[in-house]
Design brief:
- There is one protein chain.
- The protein has twelve helices and 19 strands.
- By secondary structure, the protein is of the alpha+beta class.
- It folds into three domains: 95 residues; 125 residues, Copper amine oxidase-like, N-terminal domain (Copper Amine Oxidase, Chain A, domain 1, 2-Layer Sandwich), CATH 3.30.457.10; 192 residues, Muramoyl-pentapeptide Carboxypeptidase, domain 2 (2-Layer Sandwich).
- The strands form five sheets. The chain has a five-stranded antiparallel β-sheet, with helices on one face.
- Strand 8 and strand 9 form a beta hairpin.
- Helix 7 crosses helix 8.
- The N and C termini lie far apart (171 Å).
- The site of zinc ion (ZN) has 4 residues, from strand 17.
Length: 491
């Protein structure tokens, strides 16, 4: 300090300095208070802001939740409405595949493989009022038929046989080989073509196979035999022979008496079919004809009592067999279905007949088609080699018992295949077909004797008496006929 200052001044100076320090401290405290207040205010605002943000977040979250709930409700009702619309569409589609507004097409294929011709037909033309139509003009040109037209009347003629069908424009009546039939709908003449219900082909034509694939919207026509017309419709039991079922007179033969076969019982009333299932007297041995590679059948042999088979698969043309066998077969189907084997197999169809009587000519073309296929599959084969391979599964002309009109190929498979043997319906047929007069003609364990591989689908009518003998002895027809001949020679 300044030594020149008097004590009083120094006192004052000190007092002043102390006062200054106090004030400075006060000022600093003031500033600090203000700073703290500002800080406090800032924190308060920050907290306020945070709360506001939080509130906003909650509000949005709640909004989202409400929106989500509404959206879910909307989805739920939309799904219900869609389901209803879908169901209605499916139901109406099933009830009536074409709703009139449907402009999609059907593919109509004539023939197979490379030779086929495809035609596109609008669904509206293909199906009218629930009746499916075929452009018969197109079909007739595929079948090489000739056409005669006059005043709305159209005749289609098969040149080789002269068989004729006549359709009249806007009329559901048609004339088949001179007798009139009623169609499912009117025939229609449009732009130079005659349209007629598709069912005419399946019901009144032979030799034309019709396959309908609704998923692929495709209908295929393939010639699989002699093309012709038939107006036979098997609806009632026609009279057959003079022999009554109760006829016990033996025709003087030394064959064993009828009581050697056990009595049979059926779930259905098959009394009307008795004489067909179990022919007696002279008729009993009338159906044992043996046809194979060693016992050929004449080129001109053709049964005169062929009738349409009731249980032909609906995608096939009419199939025929001899009346007695057809009636016995009807009975077998009735009982097969009565035993619960009426469900659809892997083909979507129940057991039904695919093939039966085939003429010599048809067997020629069938056999040749298989030979051609073998040679296509393996071009190194000679024709003779291909024929040899083919003959292991298809009988050469003159050696097929299909020409007798006494056998059928029946199954529920997409095509004749050994897998039918895994179907319960096969087991039933194997064990019960004798009751109706049928035998499994080509058993698995007799391939070396029959010369034909196992055919679980091929059944042959011989009448109940012989069918029982064959089934119960485990013999095949070749063995049985040989045994009978030996017995005959010995007796
Ligand atoms: Zn067969």
């Amino acid at each position: 300090m300044n030594g020149g200052m008097n004590p009083r001044d120094r006192y004052y100076a000190e007092m002043k300095a102390a006062e200054d320090r106090r004030r400075e401290a006060q000022r600093r405290a003031e500033i600090e208070r203000e700073r703290r207040a500002r800080e406090e205010e800032r924190r308060r605002r920050e907290a306020e802001r945070q709360r506001a943000i939080q509130r906003e977040r909650m509000r949005r979250k709640k909004q989202r939740r409400i929106f989500l709930r509404r959206f879910l409700v909307f989805l739920f009702f939309s799904a219900i409405i869609l389901a209803i619309v879908f169901a209605v569409t499916v139901i109406s589609f099933r009830m009536k595949p074409n709703l009139g507004t449907d402009t999609s097409e059907y593919k109509i294929v004539y023939g197979e493989d490379d030779d086929s011709v495809t035609e596109r037909v609008s669904s509206a033309k293909f199906e009218r009022d629930g009746v499916r139509y075929v452009n018969y003009t197109s079909l007739s040109s595929y079948l090489s038929m000739s056409v005669m037209a006059k005043d709305g009347v159209y005749s289609f003629i098969i040149p080789e046989s002269g068989e004729t069908v006549t359709f009249t424009n806007n009329s559901a009546d048609a004339d088949v080989n001179g007798s009139s039939v009623r169609l499912d709908g009117a025939s229609l003449y449009e732009n130079g073509d005659v349209w007629t219900p598709l069912s005419f082909v399946t019901r009144y034509m032979t030799g034309v196979k019709v396959t309908t694939d609704d998923e692929k919207h495709t209908v295929t026509f393939v010639v699989d035999g002699k093309v012709g017309f038939t107006n036979k419709k098997v609806e009632t039991l026609p009279h057959y022979g003079e022999t009554e079922g109760d006829d016990t007179t033996d025709a003087g033969t030394d064959t064993p008496p009828e009581d050697e076969i056990p009595a049979v019982e059926f779930k259905s009333d098959l009394s009307a079919y008795k004489q067909y299932m179990n022919p007696t007297g002279e008729e009993r041995d009338a159906y044992l004809i043996l046809v194979n590679t060693k016992h050929t059948i004449g080129e001109d042999y053709a049964p005169t009592d062929l009738v349409d088979i009731k249980n032909t698969r609906t995608d096939r043309g009419a199939r025929q067999m001899r009346e007695v066998a057809e009636k016995a077969l009807e009975a077998m189907f009735i009982e097969l279905f009565a035993n619960g084997y009426d469900g659809n197999g892997p083909s979507g169809y129940p057991v039904s007949v695919m093939s039966a009587y085939r003429s010599y000519k048809e067997q020629v073309s069938l056999f040749n088609s298989y030979v051609d296929r073998e040679m296509r599959d393996d071009p190194s084969l000679s024709r003779a080699q291909a024929e040899k391979i083919t003959s292991t599964y298809s009988a050469p002309p003159g050696t097929s018992e299909h020409q007798t009109g006494l056998c059928v190929d029946m199954h529920n498979m997409p095509s004749a295949q050994k897998a039918f043997a895994d179907q319960p319906a096969y087991e039933w047929l194997r064990d019960n077909s004798w009751k109706f007069g049928f035998i499994l003609r080509f058993p698995e364990d007799k391939q070396d004797i029959t010369g034909i591989t196992f055919e679980p689908w091929h059944y042959r009518y011989v009448g109940r008496y012989h069918a029982y003998k064959i089934w119960s002895s485990g013999m095949c027809l070749e063995e049985y006929v040989e045994a009978m001949e030996n017995n005959g020679a010995a007796g």
